[in-house]
Write a structure and sequence with these properties.
Order of helices and strands: HEEEEHHH
Structural class: alpha+beta
Number of strands: 4
Radius of gyration: 34 Å
Length: 129
């Protein structure tokens, strides 16, 4: 019951009742970064952490390079796959040409939904030619 009385007057955001006595913090190192716009800032990392060569600048958002470090090599990016690329994975060009011819025949014959107007205009073009 004594524990409840301690928390009774507490609210969210109130000071913590935890004690930091006996807690050993990890060793830290300050790493300096510099961005292309001339902003210099420090980030704190654990001594055991793998420190990245690039970090986003907190002022402008540009990539900042760790001081006294060479810029890392950029990995070649994969080009994005397009719908055409994915279609070619499933069908050959010959299959696609055959499907196109079949669909055009159905479209011109007026057998596809919404193709009646196209069929009528196609017939009128043929008569006038």
């Amino acid at each position: 019951m004594a524990e409840r009385s301690t928390l009774r007057g507490s609210r969210l955001g109130a000071t913590s009742y935890e004690d930091e006595r006996g807690v050993e913090l990890a060793e830290r190192q300050a790493v300096t970064y510099e961005c292309a716009h001339g902003h210099t800032f420090e980030m704190t990392f654990s001594v055991e952490a793998e420190v990245p060569a690039l970090w986003d600048c907190p002022r402008c958002g540009a990539q900042a390079l760790r001081v006294e470090t060479n810029r890392p090599e950029e990995k070649p990016a994969k080009p994005p796959r397009t719908h055409w690329d994915m279609l070619l994975e499933r069908r050959s060009i010959e299959d696609l040409e055959q499907l196109l011819d079949e669909r055009l025949q159905l479209l011109r014959a007026g057998q596809l939904p919404g193709s009646a107007q196209l069929a009528a205009s196609d017939r009128s073009r043929r008569k006038s030619a």
